[in-house]
Every structure is written in structure tokens, then in C-alpha cells.
Amino acid sequence: MKKVAAGMDIGGTNTVMGLVDEKGRVLARAGIPTRQFKTLKAYIGAVSGTIRELAGNKYTLIGTGIGAPNGNFFTGCIEFAPNLPWKGKVPLAKRFSKALRCPVILTNDANAAALGEKLFGAAKKMNDFIFITLGTGLGSGIVVNGALVYGHDGMAGELGHVIVEKNGRPCGCGRRGCLETYCSATGIVSTYVQLTGNCRNETAADSIDARYVFERARAGEEQAIEAFRFTGEVLGLALANSVTHTSPEAIFLFGGLTRAGRLLFGPVKQNLENNLLKVYRGKIKLLPSRLPESDAAVLGAASLIWNEKNTL
Amino acid sequence: MKKVAAGMDIGGTNTVMGLVDEKGRVLARAGIPTRQFKTLKAYIGAVSGTIRELAGNKYTLIGTGIGAPNGNFFTGCIEFAPNLPWKGKVPLAKRFSKALRCPVILTNDANAAALGEKLFGAAKKMNDFIFITLGTGLGSGIVVNGALVYGHDGMAGELGHVIVEKNGRPCGCGRRGCLETYCSATGIVSTYVQLTGNCRNETAADSIDARYVFERARAGEEQAIEAFRFTGEVLGLALANSVTHTSPEAIFLFGGLTRAGRLLFGPVKQNLENNLLKVYRGKIKLLPSRLPESDAAVLGAASLIWNEKNTL
């Protein structure tokens, strides 16, 4: 039977799963709403059952990788994740390993995506890079010497919570001025609302989202273009500061906001370059992720297993 | 014959050398003014001769480690160091290797000191830490997964050039608002001068230095105490941001400014803790380096060799 790794991405709304072969092909997919279960046990039972069904008699499951917000690689726990239904520290790796009878590795979802880029994307030949996810918030995974940086406690790579503005915008983490309050789908909406005074979509009469800001910018609206420029200004400087830490070969941008293409990449690139220390100038590639957006989460999670296949 | 590694620290004023055994004991020391030679060749000849003399017939030299500003581990070159007499890229590792007939490893001086802390200091059991040198400028070395972070190009760990204030104080690097313009001996003097309007030492009638600010603070002068508090405020926030990158077990502070003890460590610690993301709070140790200040540079440089002794 063909060997596969399961990749599982646990989001606040949906849990998506897939079976991935060694070359990064997604052979089967499924999804389950994360919040429809009364107990953690019921959730684990349903997700495990779905993965077993996907594998059937066709594939041998060599392990399951899990990407989840606030996932700790060392403990295999999700720790105090504000957008998930379970409180405190939840030992998900252990529970799933029992249910699926296979090795389970868990980490932060952005870390998993970074590893996916290394194994199956555009970073195959890179040993040092930074991976940034621009979604509702800003996530990150840092690769140094060919390996993900987990840090002392398994929680490294939280660049969304670099404080870029003292007493700046309030952040969900309880502090102020975090990078993700400026550079994320939520952040760009805040910027646009500040610039225009509008918080409702004029045509659809509902709240403004990042896609709306993008459409307005594409239609040439000055304030929407300025919202992207400002986002790039803040992100470019923050990334220039990150470069002084690990001197990466490239910085990858991933996630919904990157669909804006040049509107986003242009100002980020310019502000990154302008703020770089001389020794780094002209050296750091700013690249879009090459993971297909629809499968990136599953590929990232599965890469946790394929990356360790010789040690499992 | 007893095996030793030579450690060499190249500074703008002096080049110091020493022979170090595997346990981190400095068995012999010497120093030479860096600028007294007309040519690079004469400099290399004199320094190599001194090291050979130190070793004599008593010690076998297994290799030489060099710590130098703007030292690149990968190329073995010093690259565009503003305070050294040689311009452009200087292939020092290669030249010294030829002169001394032994392996030579070169890196940035702060990187070398960080490795010294790991092999011979207080970080022996630590795999993830950040090492900060507070001298004329601010240098840093970052250890991740037990190894120094060199980055893609050998130039990682330049935290002195994190921009902490847009359009802030002018920096020697040509940009503005770099961390080292606030948090270094030079930085605290600027702060003190700004606070007091004085730029001359009242008693000695010469320019104010960091030691003077320290003495005034110890004597209870409010503005001098405020200069330390402000330095700690800026450094504490910058370090909290660095923690989001590599989640270290500890941050070490080293260098002249740390002689101020609690005057410096107090405000840094407080501002670090207050600015940390919740998942890191109460976890990150802020520690003074345990390397003896007089031998730290030599120990750090020699540790480059002892760290690689199995692969040389």
C-alpha cells in the first residue's frame, strides 16, 4: 500500500484534513466544522474516523501532522488558543496518536506552512527563510540552518506580536501596537476605515473586509491604495528588523492579502529594502508562497511528518 | 604537548590574543596595537609571530578563532568594517591559516562571545539564547538549537541595527533610530546629554562618558538615573520583540555598561517583562554574562575552535 501522511489544519471554523504523499501530492481531502461537537472526545472521534475513511485499504498512514493556532511542538498541546472551543492546554497530539494509532506531530499553523514551503514549495533549496501568513492575523515560521525555529519552549516565531507602535492599536493579545493590528486582513481594514471614516461597504451595505479594500484599490480609489501603501510601510520596516535576527535568503508572504499582488508586494519590497542595514541590501528575496492556497494548510501539516520520516 | 586553541579578538585599537585549553582556561595572553602596521601583511606577520611565541614548544595549536567586527563566518572575511584599518573585504581567515599553518575560523565578535558563553560561561546547558554586548555599540549573537545563527550570508545577529525609532538618532550605519544609538555606552551618553544639556564632565573638564553617567547615577543624580531608566525602556521593548523571533531561554547582557548592575538590569527586566506576549511572560531569564570581562573576547574567539574540534 502507498505510504501517506495525514495533514490536519485546525481552524476556528473548520478542521480540514488531507492525505499527502512524499512528493506533496494531496490524494484525498475532507473537512469538518470545528465547533459542532459537544466534547473534545467527540471531535477527536469524528476527525480520526474521517482520516481512517480517507485512507481506507488503499493507503498506509505513516503519521499525522497537525497545524493549529498556539500549537506547541514540544508538548503537543494547543495552549490557550483564543479562537478554538477548548480552553487551557489541550494535549491534542497525544489524544490523536491514541485514536489514530500513528505518530502525531503538532505545531503552530504558520510553522507548519513554513515547513510545507520547504518540503513542497519554493523553499526546497533554502536553509534560512522567514514565512509570513497574512490572514485575519499575521503568523510566521522561521527556518534557520534548514530547521524550523521552535525556541526554548516550542513557541518561537510570533512575529505578528512584534510591537511596532508604542501605545498603538489594541491587539487581541491584550497589548497594543502589535504588527498584526496593522498588517493583516483586519489591519488593512482598520487602516482603510481610519482613512475614509467609512466602516460599511457602500454597495453591499455590510461591513468592509480586506477584499473590498482590494477591489477599491484596483478601481483606483486613492485611500484604498494608501491603505496598501501604509500596510507595506509598516510590514517592510518590521521585516527589515527581523532580517537583523536571522539574515534569511528569502521572506515568503502567504495568505489572502497576498492576492492583492503588486499593490501589496510593491510597498513591502520598497520599505524592506529602504530600511535594511547595508550588509543585507539587495540580498533578501521577497517572494509569494508557491503553496496552492487551498491545500497549503494540509500540505504544511503533512510536511511535519514527511520532514521526520527517518526518525519516526 | 597540551592541545590549545588560539583566540584572537581584533578591535579598532588593539588586537588581543590568548591560548585557551578545552576547559576554557586562558594559559597565555598578548596584545598588539591594531593600527601600528603599514600593511596587512606586516600585521598578520606580527600577530602570527606572537601566537607562535606564546605556544612555543609547550603547546600544540589545534586552530585559531578570530572575533572581529563585521566578520563573516562563511567567507572568513572581514567585510567593510568601519573601525578597522583595512577597507573592503579582507580574507583574514585564509591569510592567518597560511601564516599559522592551522585551521582558522572567523566570525563577528559578538557571535564569538555568545559561543564563549555557551562553551565556557553560564549558557553551557542552554540551546536557545540571545547574547547582547553593550559597548561603544550594541552587538549580538543568537543561539538556536544549540548552534550560532549565521543566516544565509554569515551576517545574522545584528540587533544593534534594529530600527526602534523612525527618524530617530543618526547611526554610524547611515540610517536613523538604530537600537545601538540608544542602548550602548554612546547611546546612554547621548541620552544623558539630552536630559542635562551638559556634554562636559564638570569635575574632570573632559567629555562625558558612560562611566561618568554611572557615577552620577550612583551618587543619586536624577537625570543620570533617568538615563539608565530610558536605556532600559528602549532595550526592554526591543528584546521583547526579539523574543517573538527565537523564544530564548535566556538573554545575556555583557560589556562595560553592565557594570552598572541593577541600575541597568532593573529597568531592562521590567520593560522586557511588561512588553512580552503572554506565552513568554515569566519564562525568559535576563542574566549577566559569566565570562570574565578581561578574557571574554579571547575565550569567545577560541570557542570557535573548541566548538568544532571534532570536525576540524
How would you summarize the topology of this molecule?
The structure is a homodimer of 312-residue chains.
Chain A: E1 2-10, E2 14-20, E3 26-33, H1 40-55, E4 59-68, E5 71-72, E6 77-79, E7 89-90, H2 92-100, E8 104-108, H3 109-120, E9 129-134, E10 138-144, E11 147-148, H4 185-196, H5 210-218, H6 222-246, E12 250-254, H7 262-275, E13 285-288, H8 296-306
Parallel strand pairs in A: 1-4, 4-8, 9-12, 12-13
Antiparallel strand pairs in A: 1-2, 2-3, 5-6, 6-7, 9-10, 10-11
Helix pairs in contact in A: 1-2, 3-8, 4-6, 5-6, 6-7
Global geometry of chain A:
globular
Largest contact between protein chains?
A: A-B, 45 and 44 residues
Q: Strands of the largest sheet of chain A, in order across it?
A: 3-2-1-4-8
**Uncertain residue segments of chain A:** none
**Strand percentage of chain A, roughly?**
15-25%
Count, helices of chain A: 8
The total beta strand count of chain A reads 13
Order of helices and strands of chain A: EEEHEEEEHEHEEEHHHEHEH
Quaternary organization: homodimer
Describe this entry's structure for a reader.
The structure is a homodimer of 312-residue chains. Chain A is α/β, with parallel strands linked by helices and 312 residues long. Helices cover 35% and strands 22% of the residues of chain A. Chain A is built from 8 helices and 13 strands. A 5-stranded mixed beta sheet of chain A has the order 3-2-1-4-8. In chain A, strand 12, helix 7 and strand 13 form a beta-alpha-beta unit. In chain A, helix 5 crosses helix 6. The longest helix of chain A is centred in the last third of the chain and has 25 residues. The radius of gyration of chain A is 20 Å and the shape is globular. Chain A starts with a strand and ends in a 6-residue tail after the last helix. The interface between A and B is large, with 45 and 44 residues.
